Amino acid sequence: MLLWPAAQLGRAWRLGRDGVRILGGVGRSARGAVVVPVPAPALARLEGEALARVGTAACYRVRVHNPTAATEVVALTMRAEGSRGTVERRTMLTVAAGTAVDRWFVTRWAGDADLVASPIDTERVWEARNAAQRWTIEARVESSARGHLDRLVIGGGLIP
């Protein structure tokens, strides 16, 4: 006889606990809809060919966008990891209000890399039958005033 009331009390306890969680989630959702996030510079694009040949130049495009009403100075860090190790390059960018700045990350996947202001001609790699290794490129944007702002990562296959 006492088992039924105890079971009902346990169900009511779980229902109350779940109800509190549901109301908290609704509150967080409402706050996110009402409070407008502060605009900050961010990465708008990170792209390049998925296949790369070791020793042949590959070019990857990164775009930093500034939606704010003031010019922002940000640090762009590009990090490439492949079969020959890790390479990291960092540069400071001045991004005018409401505009975007493009840079190209060039590497031969042989422990070298460079950030340039205009793209270079590269050879396309068409066959992937020997792509046994992987590469990744990470782009990060940071501001001295705001700290870490954004991060994007892409990857593909390396042909020896």
The radius of gyration is 24 Å
Strand content: over 45%
- Can you give the mean pLDDT? 86
Number of domains: 2
Count of beta strands? 9
CATH class of the largest domain: Mainly Beta
Give an overview of the whole structure:
The chain has 160 residues and is an alpha+beta fold. The protein contains one helix and nine strands. The protein has one helix spanning 3-34, and strands at 42-47, 51-53, 58-65, 72-82, 85-95, 100-107, 114-116, 133-143, 147-159. A hairpin with a 3-residue loop joins strand 8 and strand 9. The longest helix has 32 residues, at 3-34. It is flat and about 80 Å long.
Please tag this protein with its features.
160 residues, alpha+beta, Immunoglobulin-like, 5-stranded mixed β-sheet, 9 strands, flat
Q: What does this entry show, briefly?
A:
The chain has one helix at 3-34; strands spanning 42-47, 51-53, 58-65, 72-82, 85-95, 100-107, 114-116, 133-143, 147-159.
Topology diagram in text:
Elements: H1 3-34, E1 42-47, E2 51-53, E3 58-65, E4 72-82, E5 85-95, E6 100-107, E7 114-116, E8 133-143, E9 147-159
Parallel strand pairs: 2-9
Antiparallel strand pairs: 1-3, 3-6, 4-5, 4-8, 6-7, 8-9
